[in-house]
């Protein structure tokens, strides 16, 4: 197929931000919490009542209250994005927000309330069935991964194998070899296809399972199978809390026979885990470890959003795997929708304001979506090339087989000489048998190749598949879709108009107020000054609130850290008590390799390396050994002496002191009895021979390191 090098220009497009507020939960009602969120869907506004000060009002591309269903959100916001994906663009929908605010409810939904993901599947397949030309071929494949405790796991592989995110495409990786032998599991770029000139920073996940699908129902089955492997658990804030960030990737490839072009659209459907506070979720042990990683990744995502919104020259995508995965969706080649989920309860005021602030910042992020035409890693092209190769092979084999048959016929038709010896007759017969078996083998091979072609062709979906697929239902669906799009467009315009009218009203109120005399001007200026002062006061208040929120967040982090350290100490204590001494050198040699994402044992050199030299005390050039301190030897002060003396064993006995009226006393034996201090039976002395005792276990070492 001919490849075009047509330049593709990218138009900036802002990230669309939608806010969805869920209803007050039963538990929140029972505990008597008030609703502090008011949504203004007609102007995309969200107002939060502040019990301590001024109310907050934020505006977005759209805002939905608790009465809105996912169908409305899909039709108004997500449908146009999925339509772009079908047209060869990259798209991303991600749900963001505090734990228990309805991210999974929005993305996956429930059997009664279908979420965005299954709706997108149906939309894609309705489009494929409606594209009535047999000249159009589609190939739909999907992958499902999760980010759990900073491990990327393949939810569609048998044992949820760990995957590695690789940075930067190389020229070799841009053209992966067309290997169809492993047609279900092959290298797939998660980071959507970038135009060649900007492909330098892309990330991709090799060996991610990619399953070719034939219907929306099959895709739902795959999603459910993946969900069964996804990490989830109970917390005090959510009965079924997602403990991982999940990404469902759909790739739709469309080949147009007439134009010889292939368009590849990639859709990332992301259900993030929610931010959470330990004191509210009551997380401990494993849940706590998960929470710390979830918050860490979300904090990195917040930093990326802030950096992009402020047009910062450095965007910290590399800070976490989540931001690497979402790199293209935020500030890259993609059309993106962020669904910010919030709860209405007063109890969650701080978290709601934080989510709304991030969502507001995300509105300023500009993406550069480009239509992916004829990308080099299009699977469809590989399939077509393979089918053509197999067809050519069959033709070749058929030609050879025909020739052999003709040859045999000629040989058979030749008159046999009458004086043929018995041996000659046998050899001719053998030759005939051999030729017949070769022809049979050729036939089998040809049939095998035909089977292969059929299998490959079955994966490709011919647009429309003939008139029988374009039934009335699909036509009606198409018309309905068009109507939906029109209504959505109109609604969007209405919201925009409403927001513009409000702005205009404010400015015209000032402009139309003509100054009749100086007093009027003074009044006007005073009014403006008042407004400025009010704005200044508002900003100050916001700053104070932000500081408060930041302090709260810091306190939370500290609590979390303290809890994690306590947990770590517990584990170290267990390790110190139960890991045998023989195993410790091996434990010390274990190193974490960030490239391979695994723990490795270093080569045993025979001699264990010396412990690292301790850092100097303040004001001293080098650490001073205890001997130098004891004898005041200035020469030894600068020596790097490691104290390798064994620790004194704890005293478990007491020197015998006879009772006062014991016969020994009455005999007045001159031996002086030294009085020993009272000893706890099994405590390790902290000091020995005037120098500080070294901690004996990892547990103690951690204790002396303290909480940083
Ligand atoms: N719009 C809504 N209407 C009705 N119920 C909702 C809505 N949104 C969420 N819920 C309910 O709230 C609960 C929590 O929702 P969900 O599990 O989707 O939250 P989440 O944000 O995904 O939480 P986490 O981050 O912990 O996974 C569920 O019982 C869900 O049914």
Overall description:
It is found in: Cytoplasm, Cytoskeleton. Residues 170-198, 404-427, 653-708 are annotated as: Disordered. Belongs to the TRAFAC class myosin-kinesin ATPase superfamily. Kinesin family. GO terms for molecular function: ATP binding; microtubule binding; microtubule motor activity. The protein is 44% helix and 15% strand. With 708 residues, the protein is an alpha+beta fold. The strands form seven sheets. Strands 2, 6, 7, 8, 9, 10, 13, 16, 17, 18 and 20 form an eleven-stranded mixed sheet that branches. A three-stranded antiparallel sheet has the order 3-4-5, with helices on one face. Helix 2 packs across helix 4 (116-130) and helix 2 packs across helix 13. The chain starts with 12 loop residues before the first strand and ends with a helix. The protein binds adenosine-5'-triphosphate.
Which terms would index this structure?
708 residues; alpha+beta; eleven-stranded mixed beta sheet; three-stranded antiparallel beta sheet; 44% helix; disordered N terminus; binds adenosine-5'-triphosphate
Task: Show the helix and strand layout.
Blueprint: E1 13-14, E2 16-21, H1 26-30, E3 37-40, E4 45-48, E5 56-59, E6 62-64, H2 70-86, E7 90-97, H3 103-107, H4 116-130, E8 136-148, E9 151-154, E10 162-163, E11 166-167, H5 171-174, E12 203-204, E13 211-213, H6 216-229, E14 232-233, E15 241-242, E16 245-256, E17 261-271, H7 278-281, H8 285-309, H9 321-325, E18 335-342, H10 349-362, E19 366-367, H11 379-413, H12 422-459, E20 461-462, H13 472-511, H14 518-578, H15 584-589, E21 590-593, E22 598-601, H16 626-631, H17 634-637, H18 663-666, E23 687-688, E24 691-692, H19 698-705
Parallel strand pairs: 2-6, 2-18, 7-17, 7-18
Antiparallel strand pairs: 1-19, 3-4, 4-5, 8-9, 8-13, 8-16, 8-20, 9-10, 11-12, 14-15, 16-17, 21-22, 23-24
This protein binds adenosine-5'-triphosphate (ATP).
Residues 22-23, 97, 99-105, 238, 240-242, 273-274, 341 line the site of adenosine-5'-triphosphate.
């Amino acid at each position: 197929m001919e490849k075009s090098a047509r330049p593709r220009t990218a138009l900036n497009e802002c990230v669309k931000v939608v806010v969805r507020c869920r209803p007050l939960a039963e538990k929140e009602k029972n505990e008597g919490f008030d609703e502090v969120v008011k949504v203004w869907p007609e102007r995309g506004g969200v107002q939060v009542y502040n019990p301590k000060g001024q109310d907050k009002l934020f505006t977005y591309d759209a805002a939905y209250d608790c009465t809105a269903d996912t169908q409305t959100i899909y039709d108004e916001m997500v449908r146009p994005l999925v339509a772009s994906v079908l047209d060869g663009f990259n798209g991303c929908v991600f749900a963001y927000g505090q734990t228990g605010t309805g991210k999974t409810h929005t993305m996956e939904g429930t059997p009664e309330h279908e979420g965005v993901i299954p709706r997108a599947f149906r939309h894609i397949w309705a489009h494929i069935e409606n594209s009535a030309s047999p000249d159009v071929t589609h190939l739909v494949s999907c992958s499902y991964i999760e980010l759990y405790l900073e491990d990327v796991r393949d939810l569609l592989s048998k044992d949820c194998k760990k995957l590695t995110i690789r940075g930067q495409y190389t020229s070799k990786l841009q053209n992966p070899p067309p290997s169809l032998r492993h047609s279900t599991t092959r290298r797939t770029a998660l980071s959507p296809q970038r135009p060649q000139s900007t492909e330098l920073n892309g990330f991709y996940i090799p060996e991610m399972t990619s399953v070719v699908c034939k219907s929306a129902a099959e895709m739902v089955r795959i999603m459910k199978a993946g969900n069964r492997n996804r990490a989830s658990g109970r917390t005090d804030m959510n009965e079924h809390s997602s403990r991982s960030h999940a990404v469902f990737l759909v790739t739709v490839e469309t080949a147009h026979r007439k134009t010889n072009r292939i368009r590849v659209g990639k859709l990332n459907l992301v259900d993030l885990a929610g931010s959470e506070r330990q004191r509210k979720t009551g997380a401990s042990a494993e849940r706590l470890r998960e929470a710390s990683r979830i918050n860490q990744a979300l904090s990195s995502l917040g930093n990326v959003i802030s950096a992009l919104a402020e047009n910062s020259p450095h965007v910290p995508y590399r800070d976490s795997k989540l931001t690497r995965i979402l790199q293209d969706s935020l500030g890259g080649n993609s059309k993106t929708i962020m669904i910010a989920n919030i709860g209405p309860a007063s109890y969650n005021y701080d978290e709601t304001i934080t989510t709304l602030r991030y969502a507001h910042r995300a509105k300023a992020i500009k993406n550069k979506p480009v239509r992916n035409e004829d990308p080099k890693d299009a699977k469809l092209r590989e399939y077509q090339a393979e089918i053509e190769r197999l067809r050519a092979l069959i033709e070749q084999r058929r030609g050879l087989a025909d020739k052999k048959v003709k040859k045999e016929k000629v040989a058979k038709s030749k008159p046999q000489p009458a004086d043929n010896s018995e041996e000659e007759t046998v050899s001719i017969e053998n030759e005939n048998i051999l030729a017949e078996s070769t022809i049979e083998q050729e036939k089998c091979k040809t049939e095998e190749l035909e089977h292969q072609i059929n299998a490959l062709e079955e994966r490709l979906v011919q647009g429309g598949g003939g008139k029988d697929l374009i039934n009335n239902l699909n036509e009606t669906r198409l018309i309905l879709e068009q109507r939906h799009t029109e209504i959505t467009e109109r609604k969007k315009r209405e919201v925009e108009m409403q927001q513009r009218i409000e702005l205009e009203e404010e400015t015209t109120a000032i402009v139309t107020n003509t100054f009749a005399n100086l007093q009027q001007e003074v009044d006007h200026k005073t009014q403006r000054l008042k407004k400025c002062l009010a704005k200044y006061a508002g900003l100050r208040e916001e700053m104070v609130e932000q500081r408060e929120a930041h302090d709260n967040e810091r306190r939370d982090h500290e609590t979390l850290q303290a809890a994690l350290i306590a947990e770590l100490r517990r584990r170290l204590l267990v390790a110190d008590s139960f890991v045998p001494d023989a195993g410790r050198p091996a434990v010390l040699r274990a190193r974490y390799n960030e490239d391979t994402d695994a723990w490795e044992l270093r080569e045993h050199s025979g001699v264990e390396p010396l412990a690292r030299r301790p850092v100097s005390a303040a004001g001293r050039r080098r650490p001073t050994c205890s001997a130098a301190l004891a004898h005041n030897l200035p020469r030894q002060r600068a020596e790097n002496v490691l104290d390798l003396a064994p620790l004194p064993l704890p005293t478990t006995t007491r020197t015998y002191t006879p009772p006062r009226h014991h016969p020994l006393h009455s005999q007045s034996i001159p031996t002086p009895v030294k009085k020993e201090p009272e000893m706890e039976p099994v405590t390790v002395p902290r000091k020995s021979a005037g120098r500080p005792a070294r901690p004996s276990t990892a547990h103690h070492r951690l204790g002396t390191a303290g909480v940083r």
